[in-house]
Structure formats: structure tokens, C-alpha cells
Write a structure and sequence with these properties.
Elements lengths: L3 E6 L8 H14 L3 E4 L15 H11 L4 E4 L2 E2 L5 H14 L6 E4 L8 H4 L6 H19 L4 E4 L4 E5 L13 E5 L4 H8 L3 E4 L5 H15 L7 E6 L6 H5 L4 E4 L8 H10 L7
Parallel strand pairs: 1-2, 1-11, 2-3, 4-5, 5-8, 8-9, 9-10, 10-11
Antiparallel strand pairs: 6-7
Helix pairs in contact: 1-2, 1-9, 3-5, 6-7
């Protein structure tokens, strides 16, 4: 089985310029990479000082490339308005001709205090509720039919979100979560992929794949498992147990343009089993 490879970029310091990142995306496409995913943050702890907006950067990536898949990995949906995100994702998908993947998760206040500093919800359980409710709204919005949603956290009353995304039935959604936590696995099984956070070894991934396969009950649709591993890691053991994507993981506090160019030149992973 072959694996697809993506650059996974924190949009910090050297990479806080969308022009620079768009050029890197074009170079990555030329070098045979399959995707470029970006972090979604408002700020990060020192020594990071500059942080770019991911959504404007994603638009730049879309226009600088023709084949490269791209998207936020991940966006914390609890601090986004789902109606606004429905428009943004559909528009980005159309801008790119159907190349957007939406990575979603709870987000965290741990590394930058960005949730508490902006008055966002801090309770994990409530953010999980908001995430699931947002995903319901997005799926309904991407259908093109009028959305009638009256939930605990959000209301959308009779709005049609047109034009629809190019991809059908909608933009692929990869849900992030810790491997040992069943609730994120259940969430991920309802969508198109899983992105395990803090994955430590292939045995963990094997357990994840077994659980998700059981939860999906032999659904025939394509399903992706994305693993973030530092460049130079042997990805073959992860491919052997079900990984379909490798995301080249870089240190967010030391990442530099030179480092990214080096990884880009080394090229994507090419293992097969």
C-alpha cells in the first residue's frame, strides 16, 4: 500500500507570510508532494511572535497550485461560527476545483492560552458538543438544501448555502483526537478520516484502525488515517497497519523557511508494503 505525503506547516515566524507559503506550496506540488496542511492558531507561546491567518493563507495556496490538496489541520470548530465556515469552505473548495480537506478538533488552551485570552469556551465537554453541532450544520449546508437547525449552541433558520462545494456530498472531514479516547474515534468514524494526536508507536495506530473499522461497519466509502511524524521517520510500520497519509511534522517553535525547503527537497515518503 502506498502512502500520500503532506507538508504540515505552523504558520509562525518565517511562515507567517502567505506569499512565502503559497510559493512553498507551488514548489511542493512540483516536487511530487500530495498536500499542504496548515495550523490554525491566533497565537503561540514564545519564541513565536508572528502568526498568520490560516484561511487567507489557504486561499493563497489554492490559487498557487493546481493539484495539491490542502486545508487546516486542525481548526477548532468551537471558536468558529459554523454558518460562516460553511461559506468559507464551499468557496475555498470551488476556488481550488475540489481540493479542500477540513481537519477539525476540540482545540486546546494549553500551548498559547488563546481560548482563555479571547473568552472562548474552556470546558472540553461543551467544546465537543459545539464541534459535533457545527459538523451537523456543515453537512447540511454543503447539501445545498435549506438548513433548519435549532440546537443548544447554534441556530440556522432556513438558509441555503449556495453555491455548493465541488466535492460531493461535501468537503472531506478529518477529525482529530487522542488515540485512547473513544469519543473522538466515534466522531471520526462518522466522517472521512482520523488524525491521531500525540501518536507514539504503530501499535497504537493498529488499535485505532481496528476500532474505527468496527464503528464504520464495513462502509465502502474511502477512509483516511493521517499520521504526523518527523521527517526521516520510517513510516512503513504505520502504513502496514493502515495509515494512508504522512504529515511531515516540524517543531512549531523553531520552524524556519530553510528547514521547510530542506524537507520539501527531500521529497515525499515512498514506502510500500
Amino acid at each position: 500500500m502506498k502512502i500520500q505525503s503532506a507538508l504540515w506547516l505552523p504558520l509562525f515566524n518565517d511562515l507567517a507570510d502567505p506569499v512565502v507559503v503559497a510559493r512553498l506550496a507551488a514548489e511542493a506540488e512540483e516536487a511530487g508532494w500530495h498536500a499542504m496542511f496548515v495550523w490554525d492558531h491566533l497565537r503561540w507561546r514564545a519564541p513565536v511572535q508572528q502568526v498568520a491567518d490560516p484561511w487567507i493563507t489557504l486561499a493563497a495556496i489554492a490559487t498557487a497550485t493546481e493539484r495539491l490538496r490542502f486545508g487546516p489541520m486542525i481548526t477548532p470548530l468551537a471558536r468558529r461560527r459554523p454558518a460562516k465556515l460553511a461559506k468559507e469552505t464551499a468557496t475555498l473548495d470551488r476556488l481550488s476545483g475540489g481540493r479542500l480537506t477540513l481537519g477539525v478538533g476540540l482545540g486546546s488552551d494549553r500551548f498559547a492560552g488563546e481560548l482563555s485570552a479571547t473568552g472562548e469556551e474552556l470546558d472540553d465537554r461543551r467544546r465537543g458538543e459545539m464541534l459535533d453541532e457545527s459538523l451537523e450544520i456543515l453537512a447540511a449546508a454543503w447539501s445545498g438544501e435549506p438548513v433548519h437547525h435549532h440546537g443548544r449552541h447554534y441556530t440556522v433558520d432556513g438558509i441555503s448555502f449556495l453555491p455548493r462545494p465541488v466535492q460531493r456530498p461535501g468537503v472531506p472531514v478529518w477529525a482529530a483526537g487522542f488515540p485512547g479516547n473513544v469519543k473522538p474515534l466515534r466522531r471520526a468514524a462518522r466522517h472521512d478520516g482520523f488524525f491521531p494526536v500525540n501518536l507514539e508507536h504503530p501499535d497504537q495506530l493498529a488499535e485505532v484502525v481496528t476500532t474505527i473499522t468496527g464503528l464504520r461497519q464495513q462502509k465502502a466509502t474511502q477512509y483516511d488515517i493521517a499520521v504526523a511524524l518527523p521527517p526521516g521517520t520510517d513510516v512503513a510500520p504505520y502504513v502496514a497497519v493502515g495509515a494512508t497519509w504522512w504529515l511531515a511534522e516540524l517543531d512549531p517553535e523553531t520552524v524556519s523557511l530553510d528547514e521547510v525547503r530542506g524537507v520539501l527537497r527531500d521529497g515525499p515518503a515512498r514506502p510500500s508494503t
